[in-house]
Amino acid sequence: xxxxxxxxxxxxTGDLRIGSTLMPHKLKESQAIIDIATQRDAQxxxxxxxxxxxxxxxxxxxxxxxxxxxxxxxxxDAYGHGAKEIAAHLNGKVDMFGVAxxxxxxxLRTNTRITSPILILSPIPYSVIPALFDYNLTxxxxxxxxxxxxxxxxxxKNQPIRVHxxxxxxxxxxxxxxxxxxxxxTKIGSEPYLKIEGIFTHFPAADSDFSFxxxxxxxxxxxTESLAQAGIKPIIRHIANSAGFLxxxxxxxxxxxxxxxxxxxxxxxxxxxTIPLKPVMSLRTRVVNLRWVAKGTSISxxxxxxxxxxxxxxxxxAGYGDGxxxxxxxxxxxxxxxxxxxxxGNVCMDLTxxxxxxxxGVKIGDIVTLIGSAGDETITVNEVxxxxxxxxxxxxxxxxxxxxxxxxKEGRVQKVRNLLNL
Length: 422
Ligand SMILES: Cc1ncc(COP(=O)(O)O)c(C=O)c1O
Description:
By secondary structure, the chain is α/β, with parallel strands linked by helices. The protein has helices at 27-37, 51-63, 75-79, 83-90, 102-111, 129-134, 144-157, 178-189, 210-229, 242-247, 381-387, 392-397, and strands at 6-8, 16-18, 21-23, 45-50, 69-73, 96-99, 118-120, 140-141, 161-168, 176-177, 194-200, 236-238, 255-256, 281-293, 298-299, 305-306, 311-316, 333-336, 339-343, 352-355, 367-374, 377-379, 405-409, 412-417. It folds into 2 domains: 51-263, TIM Barrel (Alpha-Beta Barrel), CATH 3.20.20.10; 281-379, Lyase, Ornithine Decarboxylase, Chain A, domain 1. A 6-stranded antiparallel barrel has the order 14-17-20-19-18-21. Strands 8, 9, 10, 11 and 12 form a 5-stranded parallel beta sheet that branches. Strands 7-6-5-13 form a 4-stranded parallel beta sheet. Pyridoxal-5'-phosphate is lined by residues 73, 121, 202, 241-242, 257-260, 267.
């Protein structure tokens, strides 16, 4: 027996596998580990996912749609919120889910019972085309050769496939070049195994360059009219991302395609407060060490902070290994004991230091809010993004898998997703 080769039995029975023999081992203890991991008090850091806020944001947006469809962008693990759980929770409440890859689509099809269509918004490698048929995923055609290979595969399988076609009206990324779109789409329309279900384009600057965005909407309208005249009427025309939704009612067409606003975050200042949104994600950690240090003490790696007075320094269990940006070093703020405290020194992989000299009553074990509200204070994702010199999208999508997601409904933790049950 090879005692060096130990692994946890993934069936979750709590048995310990030693070599190839399954040993009944410490069932109670391993169950305890799982219990600990599902209790908020035991977490070193956690992201609260407020499912009520999610539903409210969706309701707010839907009220403005006059019955038009909605695709929820759920790629990148639902912007860090947990794709499986968000999709399961909103199944039947949105018309489609949008992912970025075949793997993200397969994850939803195999690990949730969702029945809604799943649209893959980005180009995929040709080699994974067969999986589209096996897992009922809808691809986007954004270049001619992909359409040819897809049609050939569909014919070989004798299985027609629904497709959406992306046209580049100004994003400068993917999509059929606008000048060729009419002729290429007409050709795709004559392929018996490709069923055009939708046509779309994407906005690069719907919150900053309004005249450019208007021009894109005009181009898209013109194209869909020409296609209709040519006998091609995609059922679903869509453009609007969050910023498009907030700023251009005329961009709604048949379906909108938001992500960020449904997670309760405004794209930027230009659209702030247009509609009431509730942040879905909060990020909290706790104080694990607290001590007074003398004036002139250096804090953390590279010694970028030297105390200017005798200081009370608290250590919190959050770091760049959790996706809490290193660029917050000496820049970011957190909430502890109802007050804002500054990050001092460099953010480490697992730990960060904050100065609590002027804050009364901080104790080891206290909860520290990195994103969210505590007492009268609130730190928004946008604020963290500004400190970290990035965009809110990056802050939420980089929260790492080792940060447990606690799904909260009516103030109660309904489900926990952590490294033990990813
Ligand atoms: C093609 C496409 N549609 C929609 C979205 C959703 O954008 P937002 O989160 O700004 O609403 C994205 C996001 O990156 C996207 O790439």
